[in-house]
Amino acid sequence: MTVFFDLGCETFDTFNVTIPKTTTAIQNMTDAQFIFDSARQQYNEFAGGLERHFESVATQLKDWLPEQMRPRPPPPPPPSRFLTPATYWNQVNRWVARNTALSAGILAFVGTGAVLVFIQRTTHVKKRRARKSNNGARTEAVVLAGSPTSPLTTAIAMDLERRGFIVYVVTGTKEDEEHLRKQSRADVLPFDLDLIHPDRAEGQMQRFHHFLSRHHHAFDGASAHRLTLAGVILVPDISSVTVGSIAQLSPEAWSTALNAKVLHTITVAKYMLPLVTEFKSRVLILTPNVVSSLRPPYRAVESTVSSAIGAFAASLSSELSLQGLHACHFKLGNIEIAGSKHKREEGKKSRGTPGTSIRKLHEAIFDALHSSNPSRTWHVGRGSLIYDFIGSWIPSGVVGWMMGLQHVATNEDQRTPEPEDSSSDRSITWEKV
Fold it and tell me: Rounded CA gap, 151 and 342, in Å?
């Protein structure tokens, strides 16, 4: 069977196969490609020359035209003030991807800081506890000198006992001891200190010193431990003094107030100073601050007693500082004690601004006992700092105008006003001005 391949070429009979004329076809293809390349090259040269010509004309026109007639370039688009959330997070992700090591360091730093802050806050709440021995026994004692029946003294004693202190409250009568026993607290104990007879007081202080210095055992078989005196807290009940005009106050009233408030506080501090020096303890003196700062009329006794105790606290602090010890003066404002009789009565009279919670005072007392460098003056309670500033820097005439004082006749001025409350509960509040 003979097969013919007709490709528009010459035919050869050898092996009955048709072979194309390849030489002629290739020659025709080469000529066409040459013509096409030549035409394209000429077009590119013409287009390039035309473009260069227009650029030259534009440059000449730009140089020829005056500057005022030149068209201004279009203003750039205003930058976006705020990135969209998607764009912002995309940039953050790209930056993190480019700075992997730095991102890991920042993340570790922030995470560690957050953990440290959390731990510090947790320990700050938990660390307001008295130190104990290895077997859990209480080792820190506090002497509290104030009226045992006063709500403020009782509240401070109960809080210190809850925080792990052994609280010794100075008592002078059997009624005071009975009041402490009614509290049913094993570590709130009476401390009988006879301030009238110095010889007896010296013997009582020696026994107390021996008690603190000797070894104690919490239970049979427990390891021995010693007690330490953390501090002495003086809480004179100042506002229970007589209220009245200076012309009507008798010398006996002044003598009673100065002996019962000022001299009593100074005497207790005198007997406690040897123990304070030996055990490196703190001395805390708490006094109401509002009346003593404003010095209103008919409160001469209270103002005098407060000023005297404040001057004593400043002198005591200066003396103890020479030995590396600390004495802190707490100036108290309006402090509310839950359940006090005076608070219930004042709540019925007015619905004014409430006072500061007594918890702030408890925390401040603990911090003053355990801080490495406590402040000499502490303002605790609403109005304490502002009234101290007013009494120190504002003229007395302006203070009288703020209090609403008016001039009265001579016969009315000699009249003694009736005290609003003669109970000791007034030591924790201040009158509204």
Answer: 10
